[in-house]
Write a structure and sequence with these properties.
85 residues
Length: 85
Amino acid sequence: MLEKENKNSKNSVGPKWIRAGTHSTYELANDEREVLKNDETLQVKVRRRQADNNYTVHFRKDPSAVPEKKKKERAPKKKRSKRQP
């Protein structure tokens, strides 16, 4: 069970993967991957889909290139005054 939590936290790091296209052969998918790979700010991968026997190309911005969002500091909570009877 502990291993599942580690896997989930590992996948949640960085931006989401975006599907660039679906191809019937690996060669076509790899050609598109090579084109997208020219942009050095992207990570690109090819995934095999067994159910459809297709290959999908996914890309995302490199997590090291994306600036981290700064968390805004919250103001302290205000205390409510009690009701007067």
